[in-house]
Amino acid sequence: MAAMVDMAVDAGVPLVEMVDVGKSYGVIQALRGVSLRVNAGEVTCVLGDNGAGKSTLIKIMSGLHQQSEGALRVDGEEVRFGSPREALDRGIATVYQDLAVVPLMEVWRNFFLGSEVRKRLWPFNPLDAEGMRRTARAELSKMGIELDDVNQPIGTLSGGQRQCVAIARAVYFGARVLILDEPTAALGVKQSGVVLRYIARARDAGLGVVLITHNPHHAYLVGDHFVVLKRGQMSLDGKRDEITLDELTQQMAGGDELEALTSELRRAQV
Ligand SMILES: Nc1ncnc2c1ncn2[C@@H]1O[C@H](COP(=O)(O)OP(=O)(O)OP(=O)(O)O)[C@@H](O)[C@H]1O
Ligand SMILES: [Mg+2]
Question: Among the atoms of ligand 1, which is closest to the Cα of residue 25?
Answer without folding.
Answer: 4
